[in-house]
Task: structure prediction
Amino acid sequence: MPRAPSLTARRSAALLGIHRPSTPVPAFTSGYLFAITNPGAERVLKHEIAAAGLEWRPGFQARGFVTFKSPAVEAPFGARDLLQPVAFARRLCLFAGKADTLDGARALLATAGPAELPLHHLRMTEGWLMPAPGEPPAALTAGQMAATVVEFSPAEFWAGLHWHEPLLSPFPGGCSGVTLPEDAPSRAWLKLEEAARFFGLTFSARDVVVELGCAPGGVLLALLRRGVSVIGVDPAKLAPIVMERAVAEVPASGKAPHQPWAVHCRKPAALVSKRDLAGHATWFMSDMNQSPAVAIKECARFTKMCPSIRSALITLKLTDLTEASAKSAWIDAMQRMGFQTVRLQQLCVHHRELVLLGLGRRD
Ligand SMILES: C[S@@+](CC[C@H](N)C(=O)[O-])C[C@H]1O[C@@H](n2cnc3c(N)ncnc32)[C@H](O)[C@@H]1O
Result:
């Protein structure tokens, strides 16, 4: 029997924008669930869950891995619990059992779900739970059940189940395995590409991104290669590989070149005015070395200046992960700007950072 969430949990779910499942919720339940997180984020993950009023009881913990026990035996965890938007969990799974071999874990899973379950195998690699090398699994589709097996040592395999939903990563442990190309001007290339893969973001040639804090140009290069034009804002210099594609000013509507273009608006974000944007942007992005409050305030100002902005992807730079206790204030601010769907998420390429995604903005 799926557990009825407590009143506090329901309130916090409403506040934090928990989504409804896109397909009927399957029946498998478990007294435990486990979360995959980045090493060093285990404590803030537990705080986040307690602050959301979820009443999940922390149990066994290892680097990048935290288990939770359901608050009551008669009310085990079910698929709905996995839909909680927990920023510090790259993956939440219902616990299916523990085995001393991979085949043993497979056998446990076969008793819990369909025989041909896609299997995501994670292995502890230099302190991080990362996808084990091998064939990349096929992308999951909404409603599909998948298994995660976490290998802590050659004789310890933990097995869990989850169901794929839009905005959950289709990749093992929420980590796509994408690697930085040699010509990328910065690691920020990875942050854009990992976010796009985690959330399944799509861009079209009609999109124009305004990116605050664009230098030296990793995100800009990733976007240009995806066929998207960019207005990059930053007082610092862009790398030559990006400057090669730059045009002097934002092309007038209807006069844009066929190729994606980039404009470098070489000033601090606060000095950018409506004229610099020429009414063009559809996406707001920020990767500025500024506090979350400044980045979110600029997002509000840019969406007012440029009502055509429909989506936002903001890297929040934290001095300490505990700053994420401001989560509901950040989500509220995005909702007040008109974003219908808002997610806060740690990605496997993040250290002291989180990404805040806003989609479906209405004026
Ligand atoms: C982490 S780097 C950005 C990396 C970049 N997104 C990339 O793809 O390579 C942070 C940038 O934020 C810029 N920055 C800091 N404060 C800013 C502000 N107020 N307005 C615009 N850019 C700012 C810095 O100059 C720096 O280049």
User: Anything to note?
Assistant: The radius of gyration is 21 Å.
